[in-house]
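Re: weekly structure request thread

Next one in the queue (146 aa):
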Amino acid sequence: MPLSGDYAPSTASWARRQAERYEASNGAEAGDLRGRPIIVLTSVGAKTGRLRKTALMRVEHEGSYAVVASLGGAPRHPVWYYNLRANPDDVTIQDGPAPFSARVREVSGEERAVWWERAVRAYPPYAEYQAKTQREIPVFVASPER
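Done, posted below.
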């Protein structure tokens, strides 16, 4: 079931347009970024409580998704990283026509290594992003609520 509440559009116009177009077309339009498929992650703002929508690279395995907080290799985490940390049960993923409720958890150690490898296979620039930054890029796993 999709989240409800006040929506706070991204301040990045390209990201806002992509997420909104993807949602409005039930995943039929704006389904790729740099030639790779995307998902739309909806989270609840850690500070504002408002809904935030983010287009992310699609990294799926057996019905669960890697959510990679790369921010292109920037020295800091993306803002939505903190939303997921604060509200791991208040998440939806849209991969196609209908969003579904998910729970996220940050992974580490061997589990992170496995998901990181999947992420790099799905979107090779992630490896470049990791090389650009001193922080370990966080990886969450989003699993559908059953």
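Residues 109-122 form the longest helix (14 residues). The mean pLDDT is 94.
Next request, please.
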